[in-house]
Specification:
This protein is 38% helix and 24% strand. By secondary structure, the protein is an alpha+beta fold.
Length: 218
């Protein structure tokens, strides 16, 4: 193969990669209600997904991605000492769970702070929000796996903020953690088909509507 041809092929491949990245960025940065061009179907086409994992749940039992297969799941990423977004995210998820009571949809929260978010701590956190742990599972156990899931599966970031120290529930100090603040609607095949801003109360309406739509087969 000639050198000019190799260069041309490289440029074409690079262009395709950049286009895919731009599409994902557009979906992740979208705010407000969905439009026909920004539907759950088009989000699914970005390839965002839950990667394989082996963690423990809030009962201390081994858990894998198979727990999320063959069902619709609403997912978020939190840490229980989070002073800002996580309480809002959990409240939005709890509202959606209440409105979808009796529907075949589950909820899952992945901790990004394995050292402090023990199964016992996660159960205490859930109790504070009146969460039904028969429908909503909390996962912890290996930050490297969870961060890889966020970085490679969702194309987002989890990172400690070196210059932002916060107080943990036990009175100790810790670095604040930058993490996704959106809710994710995940299909039975572990594909992300919906993204919802936790900062917008109306997004709960859209999430509930999307869940009801996929459950009805529309």
């Amino acid at each position: 193969m000639s050198k000019p041809l190799r260069v041309l092929i490289f440029i074409c491949v690079l262009g395709l990669a950049c286009s895919a990245g731009a599409l994902v960025a557009m979906m992740l940065n979208r705010q407000g209600p969905a439009t026909p061009e920004q539907s759950p179907v088009s989000i699914a086409d970005t390839g965002l997904r839950i990667l394989p994992f082996e963690l423990i749940d809030h009962n201390g039992d081994t858990a894998t991605e198979s727990d999320l297969e063959d069902q619709w799941t609403v997912v978020d990423f939190i840490f229980t000492n989070c002073p800002g977004a996580c309480p809002v995210m959990t409240a939005r998820m709890a509202e959606a769970a209440n409105r979808l009571e009796g529907k075949p949809v589950r909820f899952a929260s992945f901790s990004i702070d394995e050292r402090r978010d023990t199964p016992e701590r996660l159960r205490e956190f859930a109790e504070g929000y009146g969460i039904d742990l028969d429908r909503w599972t909390f996962y912890t156990g290996d930050d490297e796996q969870t961060r890889r899931m966020v970085a490679e599966g969702l194309m987002l970031i989890v990172d400690e903020e070196a210059d932002n120290e916060i107080s943990a529930h036990d009175g100790s100090k810790m670095k604040n953690i930058q993490h996704p603040t959106r809710l994710f609607l995940v299909s039975p095949e572990l594909k992300v088909v919906g993204l919802y801003s936790s900062g917008d109360p109306s997004e709960v309406d859209r999430l509930v509507a999307d869940v009801e739509s996929v459950l009805s087969g529309e």
